[in-house]
Q: What sequence folds into this?
């Protein structure tokens, strides 16, 4: 084996190591740290990741239907998330727990989107109470730990973005908006269509949401 063949073989091995690490750590939906990939899959050699990353992304997309996205504006170093390249995924691909969590997430995202502004935790809790979903009570479908799922798990998975209030506002009040993963995985047009059908009103009646949803569709 000459030098070029050996180098090609090494690159292929490094690429496969990175792919395996990403696939093994993507199911939790927690963002994958750049530093962890380097440490765990490449023996702490960051230059190797830059070298094989184009091939890694290509293989993930073409073989597994996964888009590897770099999370913008992060304070925790470079992070990646995996997003399916297929916009419509059958609910049969999820287990019962995953389906219930996605349903709850869809309710929360719909409420935030229709409000059109960051939603305080108090407002969000009151909205869910109106649907007989309580932060501190077990629900027959959504289960227990609903508060932790919404205020912690969904935030860590980047489905929701949590921010604190301004200094002049109520002390320690928390607000929620769509997180980066939601922007990548959910269509605001689909959310608006679902709400419109539920309320039996035309989507155009919700002017701001209609404009935003169609603007996002045009960009994508």
A:
């Amino acid at each position: 084996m000459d030098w070029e063949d050996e180098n090609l073989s090494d690159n292929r091995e490094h690429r496969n190591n990175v792919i395996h690490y990403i696939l093994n750590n993507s199911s939790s939906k927690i963002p994958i740290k750049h530093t962890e990939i380097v440490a765990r899959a490449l023996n702490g050699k960051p230059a190797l990741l830059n070298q094989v990353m184009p091939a890694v992304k290509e293989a993930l997309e073409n073989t597994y239907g996964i888009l590897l996205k770099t999370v913008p504006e992060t304070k925790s170093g470079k992070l990646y998330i995996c997003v399916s390249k297929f916009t419509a995924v059958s609910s049969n691909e999820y287990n019962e727990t995953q389906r219930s969590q996605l349903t709850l997430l869809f309710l929360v995202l719909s409420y935030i989107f229709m409000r059109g502004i960051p939603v305080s935790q108090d407002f969000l809790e009151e909205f869910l109470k109106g649907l007989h979903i309580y932060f501190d009570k077990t629900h027959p479908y959504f289960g227990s730990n609903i508060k932790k799922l919404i205020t912690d798990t969904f935030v860590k998975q980047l489905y929701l973005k949590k921010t604190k209030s301004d200094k002049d506002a109520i002390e320690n009040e928390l607000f929620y908006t769509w997180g980066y993963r939601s922007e990548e995985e959910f269509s605001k047009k689909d959310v608006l269509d679902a709400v419109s059908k539920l309320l039996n009103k035309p989507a155009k009646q919700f002017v701001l949401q209609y404009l935003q949803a169609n603007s996002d569709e045009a960009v994508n």
